[in-house]
Fold this protein.
Amino acid sequence: MLNSSKEFLEDFKTYLEVERNFSNHTTRAYASDILSFLVWLDSMPPQDADFNKLREYIYFIQKFEYTKTTIARKIAAIRTFYKYLYREHIVETNPAVSLNAPKRPKPLPKFLTPEEIENILNHVKINTPSGFRNRVILELLWATGMRVSELSGLNFGDLNLENNEIKVMGKGAKERIVLVTDRAKNYLEQYLQTARNLIAPGYKVTTDEDAPIFINNTGYRLQNKSIRNAINETVKELELQKKVTPHVFRHSFATKLIENGADLRVVQELLGHAGISNTQIYTHVSTKHMKDVYDKAHPHA
């Protein structure tokens, strides 16, 4: 692998992190994919690879029996890499423009029924400040459909509880407004007035506009992993057959709105989806759920 290729890779990682605002997970995955590609090129500079060379590489990696999802990601990484090289005038033409990824199957998102969610919420142990905080977190996930990263990133300046609104920072640094139910708002207000001040005894906890809403026992911002752990602890005791994650709460939120007749465009805005196609999958979930209920309930189904 050429030294110049290594430099291209480092610059590409910076481009993904800073300019494209990719998550750490996606950045690492793309960087790993491009590293494998550059190693395969060996002594050939990436700017000398044409469309046929890229096709040859795709044929090569298909021998390893990767899933269609992994192949698609590797191709997406290459397309993004050459788009970057073209933008930086390192290549005169982009050989990856016509590089097509295999169609990835889109599994229907998993969701919980309102009864299952209420069961989870009611089993959160709220007899400690951190336990009450966890209940508030789950209430908000169910009420708003926020991503876990959006929820952990909330600051005091994002709250407009008088109007039942919260400003969140979504993917690609895009801001949007989510709406909060009265029940979730009441839980949140109780947390802010009492439990939050008791979570980190001995540590300075502020309420400035940039101060985090959800904190750990040392007064710092609560991380995504801690939120997942809180859910796991509660769900483990219930012995549910379904896997429950913060994103399942998001799926459940969207599915319930669609089932109750919410407009797709409204759901798209609330979820922060870039395109309507990402939201349409919930109509399929709703239809499948309806068919399952029908099959179980109708005597001749």
